[in-house]
Amino acid sequence: MKRLLPFLVTLVGASCVAAIAASQPIAITEFDRTFAGVSDFTCTLHVHEVKDADVRDRVYLYSFMKPHYLKTLVLDGSGKGSGAVWVGGDQVSAHLGGLLSFARVKLDINDPRAVSLRGVTIPQSLLPGVVDDYGTIPGKLTETDGGQIEGTDTDRLQLDVADPASNHGVSEQILYLSKETHWPIRQIMYSGSQLVLDESVNGLKVDVGLHEGDFPF
Question: pTM for the complete prediction?
Answer without folding.
Answer: 0.86
